[in-house]
Specification:
By secondary structure, this protein is an all-alpha fold. It has one domain. The chain contains eight helices and no strands. The longest helix has 36 residues. The protein is globular and about 50 Å long.
């Protein structure tokens, strides 16, 4: 459980489509718009949670060794995400942009679609969270739902905090661009460490009798 929470925290703090959308809406249209948009993002998480676990529960029972492949793929993805977080040339997600105002229904719908079309979340549910499923404990579906539930709790909590503080953070970073580089290096380093932990944990599992 701690591993899922750590990875969920590292991924939600790394800039991605969800963060860009939520921050841009909050900075341009206010906190209410950001919270409504977050509701759509949360609904997208629930869609992934249901779809991924219903399919994976059957798949892992049929092909238990597929978990090893998924662990390796998840570690490689985290390394790729770490590089994209720290590489030079990035733009802060807290940069103020000119965005037209939208209705609450459109804000919710765009939040939903942003999350459903977010490759980071797709890979999270297909390639990273399933590696924490323990076949020996049985009830793969229930384990997947619980693990995904913790990921959603972390993601929604952190994103809500970001929405509430987006205006202040945007102004702070606009005056202090060096802090952006510090944030990106810290998050990239965290994701790299998590990738190594996945590989080491996988090797340890493979050597157990």
């Amino acid at each position: 459980m701690i591993g899922v929470v750590s990875i969920a925290l590292g991924m939600v703090l790394s800039p991605g489509p969800n963060m860009v959308y939520l921050v841009s809406r909050t900075v341009s249209q206010g906190r209410r718009a950001g919270i409504i948009s977050l509701g759509g993002v949360a609904a997208g998480f629930l869609v992934y949670l249901a779809g991924a676990n219903l399919g994976l529960a059957v798949l892992f029972h049929a092909f238990p060794h597929l978990l090893t492949v998924i662990r390796i793929a998840g570690a490689l993805y985290l390394l790729w995400l770490a590089w994209n977080t720290v590489r030079p040339g990035g733009v802060s997600v807290f940069t103020v942009r000119d965005i037209p105002f939208d209705s609450p229904r459109r804000l919710f719908g765009m939040g939903l679609m942003t999350n459903l079309l977010n490759p980071k979340i797709a890979i999270l549910y297909v390639s990273i969270i399933p590696q924490f499923v323990d076949l020996e404990k049985g009830n793969v579906l229930l384990q997947g739902v619980i693990l995904g539930g913790f990921q959603i709790l972390v993601a929604v909590s952190v994103n809500l905090s970001i929405v509430l503080a987006a205006g202040a953070i945007s102004g702070f970073l606009a005056r202090r661009p060096d802090w952006l580089r510090v944030q990106r290096i810290a998050m990239g380093g965290l994701l790299g460490v998590l990738a190594v932990m996945l590989v080491v944990g996988n090797a340890g599992t493979a050597t157990r009798p």
